[in-house]
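Lecture 7, part B: from sequences to assemblies.

Below are the input chains for today's worked example.
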Amino acid sequence: MKIDRRSFLALGLGAAAGTALTPLPWKLTDDISIWTQNWRWLPVPGDGDVTMEIGACTLCPGGCGISVRKVGDRIVKIEGLPGHPVNDGGVCALGISGTQLLYGGSRIKSPMKRSGERGQNKWSPISWDDAIAEVTAQIKTLVEAGKQESLACITGSGSGTTPLLFKRLLAVLGSPNFMTTSSMADSYSAVIRKMHRLSGAVDAGFDFENTGFVLSFGSGIVEGWGSPLRMIRTANDLKTKKVSMVQVEQRLSNTAAFTQALVAVKPGMEADLALGMAAVIVAENLHNASAVGGSSSGFAEFAAMLKQQFSPDAVSAKTGLKSTAIAELARKFADPANRSLAICGRGQGSAPGSMREFMAVHALNALVGRVNTQGGVYAVQAPDYIDWAKDSSMTAAITGKIRIDEAGVGAFAHTDSLLNRLPAKILAKGDSPVGLLLVSEANPVYTLAGTKQVMEAFKKIPYIVSFSATMDETTALADIILPNHSYLERYQDIPVRAGLVKPLINLAKPVAAPQYDTQNVGDVVIKIAKALETPVADAFPWENYEDCLAKTLGDKWEPMKEKGFWTDEAFVPGAGATAFAFPAQLPDEPALAGDEKTMALVLLPKESMRLWGGAVADLPFVLKTVPDTDLKGNQVVVEVNPKTGASLGLADGKEALLTTASGSATVTVTFFEGIMEGVVAIPKGLGHTGSEKYIADKGVNTGDLIAPFEDPVSGLDAAFGTRASLKRA
Amino acid sequence: MSTSNHEAIGLAPDGNPKKSEGSSNGVIVLFFIVGFAVSMAFGWLVFPKLLYSEKNQPFDFNHKTHMDLVDNGCESCHVFREDGTYAGTPTLAQCSDCHQDVQGESKDEEIFVNEYVANNKEVPWLIYSRQPDCVFFSHAAHVKMAEMECKDCHGDIGESESLKVYRENRITGYSQDIWGENIAGIRKNTWDGMKMTDCGKCHEEKMGSKGPCFQCHK
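Predicted structure of the full complex, as structure tokens:
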């Protein structure tokens, strides 16, 4: 018997054949594949009871209710709250991504003090006691030096208990400088106050549910205007009911594609179109007789101005539209059977607009009797439930004092806050008029136009306190951060100002335990007030913020905790707003910054539901949905008409240098036949900076390129675009 | 035929096969058979024993005793939550309703009460039917909508008087009950395994299709 190499080969072959006839290879293959799914480092959601909790979204002003799905203590999904008056179970891409804000990398994990130069992003953690003591000491120093008026505050909203606690703190200390981020709601509010001779908190409410024809002057109905979820639902309802919608815009936006007709008017000439239509309506006697008589005033002067300044030929020349088309649109709008409604506020309405445009559109509605009537636009008094906001603590120490931004008096009597005027005031000669700035739920360094000037101004402010939950552009320039809970970890009442017809207050609730060493900003303000002692502490008699909220909301508190919101079903909109004054004259349209000879193009922001242009940066999930016609890699993509592109020697998909009076940026050009010649459209909502790699350094902030323009009537920023040039890179 | 030619083709000069070559072939066959037999024995007998480790539950549990005491069968303890999701193994709170104190003479109940109830500690049961996280399974869809019996997948566990030894796959970490006790994957009963093929087989029979991937793999 000879054992050789072949014997062992046979042994191996036998073993292989035998093994193949056992379950071993098949079972091992199966097990190994399962093993690869169970590596320790693979993220796996924890087990636990599944629960649903009710809360409110604060990521945009839309005012949606949310229903949060939890497994154990972890939030795994955010859904819309069924039965909520705004979204009735719907949720947008930003809202559904809120978990990424709660658990994401941009959260500030504890109070921090700046340890490097401003903007260097070097911080040292400090305790809450030390942070509150330091802010209190800084405020005391100002007050003792008699500079209490240099104490200023910027919040995202001017209503609700949290902003009003800040306003109260400033008021008791003797500073009137409580400012808020402005939006189209402020422009509407100014228009209603001015034209209806009203004062106080009043907003525009739009009764889309009962309208028969919507004429939108650049409003992104399906792109986040007003309350995004309500508007998408409304747009779908209108389409189902075959309600006519016409969009006035310079490009074929999603909204324009949704409507029956796109009226491509020259940039900035929306108000002229509205007034041209009004002129046709008056000339053809199509206006509503009762709407121009009775309690309204100034119709004769208004009609005379229309006749004189807005003849069909003049309007045609300014708007670039045929006078017959304008007349046809005017007749359709004036037809009582159509129950028309004109709206304005461009894109998402996150920026205010020109009073010329808002007044023209409101006058157009009034002319055909569509104000304070079913299916039209209403003047809606904001919910008035915060009694302590009306007591003497809020006014005694600041009566007669002029604000730094000069809002609320003189030329700007119809506006509450003019944050856009602040940078220039700070940058004026001498010391900054703001000695200490408190910033909460606002990101003015990102949202204000003219970023460069805004940055310079903020750097000149001696001391900035940020209460932000996340590291944003403004917080990066702060001296100390007292981080707020995220909106999923805190209580907060949120009165909704989003074009609703009935007042609505949402209640954000702590649906998740605090992830980090953060505190509700309401609690922190109360703690600071108490640390400042009498008389400041006396104006804050509450144990904590929850106590303040419960006492403020009174009998609404428990039902709101259960239901998530409060609305006044019996509310009758438009009450007390019967007076109407037609304007005898309108301010000029905002001038476009830049030299027309060297910058022949007009740069306009374009907006979409995938990009939110407000204080909160798009979350990574949402940013992933931005198409490469808006953002290619990290470079912003701008749209031009192929004819414009060819005349400038540009190539589709290639780089170019975009220059405006404010700055320049390297962009990728995309040719789009749906945009007017001579116009460049740039996505709004990009260009965030910071350390969150999934959000930062993608594209350009439109505020870097578009300079602000102060509206002569409201004082709000009315810039809708700028002149620009585009050269092949 | 010349001698050299015989050698060249492996024959002895007399034309018969060479003896040494014959024994060599025998060795090869023998080695093949040995290799075959050993690997078969390993694959069928040794491998299944090596693949699984044996673990005991924290303490024993008598399903039968409990079934005799409750009105609503399995669902008395293995409840569906209000939203329709299935709660799985009863929590400490559920068991504590009855077992705040030791009631009988069972040593296992004593362990439960003294070690878990007294310390408010959940029992770390080893779950025989635990599936990978990549699988979505709705008990409600099967039990409530399709009106399947618990037994169809879980067998007669409700009649058992003690818990069987938990045999954990050393590679995957899952129970042997998923693959089934038969290493070849042969099934006699519907509850003999819980692999995807078992789901697919039943779905095909009852619904005419195995269903799309994302029905279970979300």
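Note for the exam: Residues 19-51 of chain B form the longest helix (33 residues). Keep this in mind when comparing with the next example.
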